[in-house]
Specification:
With 140 residues, the protein is of the alpha+beta class. The chain is 40% helix and 11% strand. It contains five helices and four strands.
Length: 140
């Protein structure tokens, strides 16, 4: 996201087009190009902001954890709503709770994502579990 011309929307669309299925964003960037600062985790609502906007662990310390910056809250809420809807579509129990107006807690969403369908048997479940367990700091 820190490169000139970077577009999160184009990257998401490319993933959906190439992989098909029910691909859903679990993080959104905070900033883009020279203004890239870090990521917001759509499951936890926590951001990982890097001191100079870069996640190269060899030259930058751990990210600063905080709430979603005010200027990104509307976008965060929209992406989170889409994520929740796509996740509950894959779990009948969660879908019923959601349709009854219940807020679906983070842990239930995480469990549903890690239990996702790996019909091709290519190890996607292990990757999903690692990504979710380690959170945004490991994959930025």
């Amino acid at each position: 996201m820190d490169r000139v011309g970077a577009s999160y929307e184009r990257a998401l669309e490319s993933i959906r087009r190439r992989l098909g299925g029910n691909a859903v964003a679990l993080q959104i960037p905070i900033g883009a190009e020279a203004e890239f600062q870090g990521v917001a985790d759509l499951l936890s609502g926590e951001t990982s902001i890097y001191a100079n906007g870069k996640s190269n662990r060899s030259s930058v310390g751990a990210p600063h954890r905080s709430e979603v910056p005010e200027e990104y809250k509307e976008s965060f809420d929209q992406y989170r709503q889409t994520m929740v809807e796509k996740i509950v579509e894959t779990d009948e129990h969660l879908l019923i709770r959601y349709l009854e107006g219940e807020q679906i807690e983070e842990e239930s969403l995480r469990k549903s994502v890690t239990a996702g369908n790996d019909s091709r048997g290519r190890g996607a479940r292990a990757l999903r579990e690692r990504a979710i367990r380690q959170g945004s700091a490991s994959f930025t």
